[in-house]
Write a structure and sequence with these properties.
Elements: H1 5-13, E1 18-21, E2 27-29, H2 30-46, E3 54-58, H3 63-75, E4 78-82, H4 88-97, E5 102-105, H5 110-119, E6 125-128, H6 139-144, E7 162-168, E8 176-181, H7 182-195, E9 204-207, H8 214-223, E10 228-231, H9 237-247, E11 251-253, H10 256-263, E12 278-281, H11 288-298, E13 302-306, E14 316-318, H12 320-328, E15 340-341, E16 346-350, E17 363-368, H13 380-386, E18 387-388, E19 391-400, E20 406-411, E21 415-418, E22 421-424, H14 425-432, E23 438-448, E24 452-461, H15 469-480, E25 488-491, H16 505-513
Parallel strand pairs: 1-10, 3-4, 3-5, 5-6, 9-10, 9-11, 11-12, 12-13, 24-25
Antiparallel strand pairs: 1-2, 7-8, 13-14, 14-15, 16-17, 17-19, 18-19, 19-20, 21-22, 23-24
Length: 520
């Protein structure tokens, strides 16, 4: 199976069914989407030359954005997701480094696209997916550039062809691109359907979290089974709750932060959630107390997967039945687990010499299987460092119990997971050090009920300097965006340093994480 087959499989089994129900109420059937995908893909192929077929989609949650992603696969190109919450500088860096040559964009982001056009001249073409634009053709005009009824040529069926590159962070804090091949997609879809099999009832999947991340990726295995994808503009608790009841939603993904918002909403128990089969949570750990509360409200449907940008979503899996059995046995520690290794993946816990450790002992989580990405684009050194002897080294520290359940307890990489997004502290520190009055700084994640981890800056000011936290946070937001900017600033006269002058972050972290079993 290749990425282009994802939509074609769904079309085969449900040609007259609804593919997308968009946030504006419009609906699109598989048969109608098929015609549009063929036209968009044919237009993409018509513009191909020696430049990389690296085509980006920059949009909030929208059916037209999904259509463009499926068209990129059909044309045999490589999809580059662009996070709408990133700063323009971040996205310019990602698009330039990943050799983007065409950008599909939503009109709500046109001003940012104008800035990107100036910063990334390598992007030759701009297509606005929902409206006319002077930056380039609209999507309708783009489709009309080929003959009516045009069919795209068959893309390469090479299992190792790269069909998507998702941005992640690196040890320097600069984003890198993980290369997903056709083989990765095949394994992801097979693994998803093994662990969450689709029965006689047609799936209905609700997209509320950003489609540039897990919420969008999870839609694709379900599209391959002819699902209806209901799209909301964002995480709005009343809209999510209403949509579940109205559309008979069977599958839903949300990060824990968003689930907490639902649980805290006064209208939570006013809706019918009986259609749900899998309420998937991932991206960061979830409080055991709140997980039990979610099971009481939504039923025995809570489902967890563990993965990374390099190994998407299903390294491990904790099924609804696993959750129920843990609750029935009062084995509440089990809720700290991310599940057991999935059927198509191997997982080990290894020491610093890459030797497997016995159950119960801590070590780095490493995984092996077709779900593992091909490597980091244009970064062979990082690829060699991470992919060793056929195993992907996750950078997560964990253990595995006698029943095979995996527990993540700390993070080897200096990374913060806040609201389901990855933030590398060094990137934030670089911006902080550009603030005129800061002499030294360190950024860590501290436990937070809403965000999982809150980005927190420890700052040492220059002698005689005066600055307030709000001023520093605003400075970071302007350069990094709201996700990466610190939520709070702690001023210190002096930061703890190692003999070689590095800030000892473990000393800063310890008071906040003391007494907790997990350090993530």
């Amino acid at each position: 199976m290749i990425a282009a087959d994802i939509f074609l499989k769904g079309h085969e089994c449900n040609p007259d069914g609804v593919l997308f129900t968009n946030h504006d109420g419009t609906r699109m059937r598989y048969c109608d989407a098929h015609e549009r995908i063929e036209a968009i893909a044919a237009a993409l192929q018509a513009g191909m030359d020696d430049a990389p077929a690296h085509w980006a989609v920059y949009s909030p949650n929208d059916a037209a954005a999904f259509l463009c992603i499926l068209s990129i696969f059909r044309a045999g190109g490589c999809w580059l997701p662009v996070n709408t919450r990133n700063s323009v500088e971040d996205n310019a860096y990602i698009l330039k480094r990943n050799d983007c040559t065409l950008l599909f964009f939503h009109s709500s982001l046109e001003e940012s696209v104008r800035q990107l056009a100036a910063k990334v001249p390598e992007i030759r073409s701009f297509v606005c997916i929902d409206a006319p634009s002077d930056l380039g053709p609209s999507l309708s005009e783009f489709m009309a550039s080929v003959a009516e009824g045009a069919q795209a040529e068959e893309p390469s069926r090479d299992p190792d062809a790269v069909t998507a590159m998702l941005a992640t962070g690196g040890t320097t804090g600069l984003p890198k691109a993980t290369a997903w091949t056709n083989r990765v997609w095949e394994c992801l879809i097979a693994s998803f359907l093994i662990h969450m099999p689709v029965g006689r009832r047609r799936p209905v999947y609700l997209v509320a979290a950003p489609m540039t991340h897990a919420a969008g990726v999870i839609a694709l295995p379900l599209i391959a089974k002819g699902a209806e994808v209901v799209i909301l503009e964002g995480v709005d608790p009343p809209a999510i709750m209403e949509a579940i009841e109205k559309h008979g939603v069977t599958h839903l993904f949300l990060p824990p932060t968003a689930i907490y918002m639902l649980l805290d909403h006064p209208r939570l128990r006013m809706f019918d959630y009986s259609s749900l089969e899998h309420f998937i949570y991932s991206a960061s750990p979830m409080s055991a107390t709140r997980l039990i509360e979610a099971m009481e409200v939504f039923g025995p449907v809570m489902t967890q997967g563990y993965g990374q940008a390099e190994v998407p979503f299903l390294c491990t899996f904790m099924s609804p039945q696993d959750h129920v059995e843990a609750l029935q046995a009062n084995a509440l520690k089990r809720f700290e687990s991310c599940g057991r290794p999935t059927q198509l993946m191997r997982l080990r816990i290894v020491d610093e010499n890459d030797r497997e450790v016995p159950p119960g002992e801590l070590g780095e989580i490493v995984v092996q299987g077709s779900l593992v990405h091909k490597g980091y684009y244009k970064d062979p050194e990082m690829t060699r460092e991470t992919l060793r002897d056929g195993w992907h080294h996750t950078g997560d520290i964990g253990r595995i119990d006698d029943d095979g359940f995996v527990y993540i307890v700390d993070r080897k990489k200096d990374m913060i997971i806040t609201g389901g997004f990855n933030v590398f502290s060094s990137e934030v520190e670089q911006v902080l050090m550009a603030f005129p009055d800061i002499a030294n700084c360190a950024v860590i994640g501290i436990p937070d009920d809403k965000w999982g981890e809150a980005v927190t800056a420890f700052v040492q000011l220059k002698p005689g300097a005066v600055a307030d936290a709000g001023e520093i946070i605003a400075f970071c937001k302007e350069r990094l965006g709201g996700v990466k900017a610190p939520k709070s600033v702690v001023f210190r006269d002096r930061l703890p340093l190692s003999p070689v002058g590095k800030v000892l972050k473990r000393r800063l972290r310890e008071p906040f994480w003391q007494g907790r079993k997990r350090r993530v």
